[in-house]
Amino acid sequence: MSLTQTGGVATVTDATFAEEVLAAGLPVLVEFTASWCPPCRMIAPVLAEIAREEGHRLKVVALDVDENPSTTNAYGVLSMPTLMLFRAGEPVRSLVGARSKRRLLEEFGEAL
């Protein structure tokens, strides 16, 4: 299966979430995003940079909350962007809001 990629960040859907995130061999950073969300647009280049630089140890994907309500509701996501780190199929850390690359890596550091 091929995933749509935007700047190194793959797009996942309700249909591909289990395979691409829960069954992934690497930790996966999921951005719950929306096209109408200004902070989501602000953090997109940061996530693309992290995806390029940390791809050997971390997978970065985005899920559009408007188009994928099942996954969004399953994880109780109410605000965008919500960044959720999954390891071995389980969410291990969650943050809400845009951040700088340095701060994002610091906040997720020990969970990686």
From TrEMBL:
Residues annotated as coiled-coil are none
Instruction: Give a Gene Ontology cellular component term annotated to this protein.
Output: cytosol
Disulphide-bonded residues: 37-40
Q: Which SUPFAM superfamilies match?
A: Thioredoxin-like
Molecular function via GO: protein-disulfide reductase activity
GO BP, sorted A to Z? cell redox homeostasis
Q: Describe the location of the Thioredoxin domain by residue ranges.
A: 1-112
Q: Which PROSITE patterns match?
A: THIOREDOXIN_1, THIOREDOXIN_2
Q: Which branch of life, at top level? A: Bacteria
Entry-linked PANTHER family: GEO12009P1 (PTHR45663)
Family, according to the entry, reads as follows: Belongs to the thioredoxin family.
Query: Could you identify this protein by its name?
Result: Thioredoxin
Species source reads Streptomyces antioxidans
